[in-house]
Amino acid sequence: MHRHKNGALALSALVVVALAIVGASTASPSQSERQFKGFINIGISTTLSGSIATLGQGGLQGIQLAAADLNRQGGLLGKEIKVVSADDNATPATGAANVRSMILDKKISALFGPVSSAVAAAELQLTAQYKVPTFLHTSNDITLMTQRWTPYAFQVVPNTIMEPRAVAEYLAKKVGNRKLNIGTFSPDYVFGRNSVANFLLALKDLGVNHAVVGQQWPALGAPNIAPQLSALISSDPEVTFNIQFGGDLVNFTNQAAGYGFFKNTRMIGMYSLDPLKALGDAAPSGAIAFSRAPFWGYKKNAAMTAFVARYKKAYNAYPSEWAIMAYSAVQTWAAAVKKVKSLNGDKLVKAIEGSTTPTIRGPLKIRACDHQAEVPEFVGTIAKQRDKTVGHKLWNPEVFIASPAKTMLTCAESLARR
Amino acid sequence: MAALTHDERLVPSAGTPRPRLKSFGVAALAVVIVGGLALAGAFLPLSTALDVRNAIGLALFAVATNLLLGYGGLVSFGQAALYGIGAYTVMLGWQHWGWSFWTGFVVAPLVGAAAAAAIGVIALRTRQLYFALLTLAFTQLAFTLAHQQFEFTGGDNGVFGEVLPAWLADERQGYMFTLGVAAISCFLLWRVVTSPFGLTLRAIRENRDRMEALGVNVYLHQLVAFVISGFFCAVAGVLFVVHTQSAYPQLLEWTKSGEPILMAVIGGMFSFLGPVVGAFVYTLGQQELVQQTESWKLVLGVILLAIVLLRPDGLAGLVSARPWRRLRRSETEPGA
Amino acid sequence: MDTVVIEVSGTLSAASSLFLASAGLTLIFGAMRVINLAHGSFYMFGAFLTTSLVGFATGARFWWAVPVAALAVALIGAGVELGVIRHIYGKEHLTQLLATYALFLIFADLALRIWGAESRAVPVPKSFFGSIEIAGEQIPKYNLVIVGTAIAVGVGLWLLLKLTTLGWRIRAAVDDPESLEASGVNLQLLFTVVFALGALLAGLGGAVISPQIAVTPGIDGSIIVGAFIVTVVGGLGSILGAAVAALLIGASETAGTLAAPDWASTFPYIAMIAILAVRPWGLFGQPER
Questions:
Q1: What's the CATH number where A129 sits?
Q2: Residues B242, B57 contacting (CB under 8 angstroms)
């Protein structure tokens, strides 16, 4: 009995701590008092815990900042924008349940997408059914806009064809006619599988003389990749196309460095803000880096500069591409709402199709035929020195901005895949 | 399982056939539950009704798992593989071979049972924690294969599609179908646990050595239980398809195997309906929690810890002071 | 093509990581018959604490950060034992699995709140930065630290169990707790110490591995399955078993990446199923009554 008392004490202490933390994390910054005629809910159900949480958290912050910026300018249709968010635990069923409740109970007017393409697919079933405009700003599987086409979804991120094609184009320019031995390293994940396949296909289309010497597929989020890594190194590739992201890429870079890997092979990886920040000086200078929307890739863009400053002020950090793409997604939606002066899903879809919206990423055009945004992919090389403002390495100044006109499927090709 | 050697527990009195009065009571309870859920499905607001529909499917998953857990004393982390196989069979059959939903509906439980037989043949050679962790390996193997064979399975993107006939795709009608299938399955499982086979299974749980000495083929009994459980786990997987029209690898992950176990423990694994209660509490509660706070894991963890430390009988222990409870207490508190 | 060196080095470093992740788990089970699902959380705490202690780009602090992180995790472990584990001794494995699963959830959330979602990295300490050349192949110097730590932990545990009073008591606690208590040993204190030691090993593992990985929330879950495989294949409670199993699993994965890269990640599971089908109690385990 004595024992139970102790347990109860320990538990009540835990409950108190739990409540305190929950209270702290859910307390939102109080909105400045302003005259709004009601509010508009927008939803984001994304991955906020676990190993890919950094992508979801970045997106959520972008959306929250976008809502705050809109509210500062008087909201939309005179109403205040409120962000409803939930963790999907990277599980489609959880994401779908969240979205259903957001649609039916919270009456959200727009949904901003998750990290995982599978979760996105589950959510698109629902937003199509309830006619809620949905903006995919992180998950980028090509099938979401083709086989799983729904008229209410828009993709503002370079998809799994555009991204690898952009990298292949860059590589083709650099190597000329020399024959290349290529290795690939990818999470055992459809996103990775498709990206690798499309990268190799693009090299062939571009006439790059190459041979694939080794391909490895470690599990997503696996901390221990020594076996796959040593197999890759044994196959002795001159160029390695690595499509891991976030923590996995950091993991790979740290382990590969010890093998002298970056001296012997030209590494191509998704070295965007998060991995560069985590790696610090260990980021491999000279490696080819690609990113979907690095803020340093937008030169002479005052809107982006102002956004980076606002973001820095709000979160005391620089915005990742996940935050940037999420923010531009809200801008696209908000512009359409202003234009049609309505939240009606069908009217908004009509307005967005073929529209071009000024965003922090520049003019953002959404193609009418498949709702894919005509956005570039950025490719560059990692700098030697730390960037003075951010405090860690970024890229060298010359950045290749792959034109979407070259990387996108044509409308006919896209429609043929439905 | 600790201290299972006391002789008085050899014959579980609670499970022996009772006078007619009791079976009448059971029938009445069943009618009330199913009737209540049917009314709920007809009149609740749609979003709540759909959450309940999800919980009904998972309740069947939990009851089927509890055939092993509560009745067989076997902690299996392999049930998600069978649940996922149920869902995948319907979706992949539809995608690759153009099966109708009904073909999948009939084939999936059979595939689940066959897979359970294959897993059980190997896993039941081990015992206790080895069994739990070996079944976990099977689940992870299935999970990894679903990722890896992505050209067949769609990998982590899973399989999505309009597999249901139009009337079943209607939310309320799909609800009634789910309720019907789950109710019939639970009835069949009830018949299993109250049959002589079910009694033997419990007796094995209580004293394996004694039953072996009596000439009972323990391995075979447990294997049959494993196959029956696998059959109904796959049925629950089919109900997941009715709910979502999809299948994807997370259904096969070991944490998914933990869910029905959690449900059984929350509701009480020593009563037939405990897992049902647990499934509703867990599913609806977690759903609410996820939407309320980003720190849902923290809150869920604290609640679970409270249940394990303070109420090891689960919620059903609060309402049913049946002999099982006494039995359970003597079992869990030796020298406490 | 003399890549054998690289394969062997990869296998050894994989095996060492697995062993470091599972040594504490099997120690705790061996002495206390408690299976700890929150073991991965201790590992994660070890890694996160190291990132905090080292800060960014100051490699020299690494060598004192590792023991401090490990000791801090040992303290957390002692707290967990006193607060939770103590109440579930002798209960069914299921109760223990659930209680420690609850802890796993709680710790995952706490780590996310404390350290955030971003991945963190610890710079490799200067003295072990870069590579050494063996038979013409470059091998990461830091692999030496990982393999060395694994060997030190293995040998240290073996000596502790065989030669010290504490070790004798731990072994006695497994076989005959009643008479051990009758002989005046404070069993509860012993269990607290063992649990803290197990947590320390997990924290040490996380701390030592941290320069080689990205430290993110979620590493708790991603190492726990591997640790369980090793522990079970080796035989629950057997340190030697864990070491042999770690080598076997590491080798099976390397063989997989060479023979059939597409199938490589299934190899550890297939190896585990095959071994347990033949030896239901693991390689060095003993049948549970």
A1: 3.40.50.2300
A2: yes
